[in-house]
């Protein structure tokens, strides 16, 4: 392969990963601009997935692992592990965002309800831990 291509492919992946951070840096949070930033984020993620699937960027896997699992299957396994971790953490964040303010309100009205309120907040965080465990199991299979 061409040396310029080997240098530009990882650079393209880095640019695709950093592109959605530009609207966040500018402070865009509401309206049509927020929709555009979410769409840009999804397009950048799809671009990185295509680059990771089509182009073998770097030798991130040892020779024994590469012999055991074909390149495409290993790439899909890594994408699966990343999706499991990312989506479970996103779900845990949504759960904690809903449970924590309710727990704070309950504790402010009745300080004795602190233990019960914290159980619901911790249950939301358990989703992220389960996702991390599943991604570790996926990575151990590769």
TrEMBL record:
In the UniProt record, does the keyword Disulfide bond occur? no
Q: Recite the UniProt keywords alphabetically.
A: Ion transport, Membrane, Transmembrane, Transmembrane helix, Transport
Q: How does it sit in the membrane?
A: Multi-pass membrane protein
Give one Pfam family, short name only: ATP-synt_C
CDD domains from the UniProt entry:
ATP-synt_Vo_Ao_c
Boundaries of every V-ATPase proteolipid subunit C-like domain copy: 79-138
Entry-linked InterPro entries: ATPase_proteolipid_c-like_dom, ATPase_proteolipid_csu, F/V-ATP_Csub_sf
Annotated GO molecular function terms are: proton-transporting ATPase activity, rotational mechanism
Annotated transmembrane regions: 38-57, 78-105, 117-139
Q: Which GO terms describe its cellular component?
A: proton-transporting V-type ATPase, V0 domain
| Superkingdom | Bacteria
Q: Where in the cell is it found?
A: Membrane
Transmembrane found in the keyword field: yes
Family, as annotated: Belongs to the V-ATPase proteolipid subunit family.
Protein name as annotated: ATPase
Source organism (scientific name) = Merdimmobilis hominis
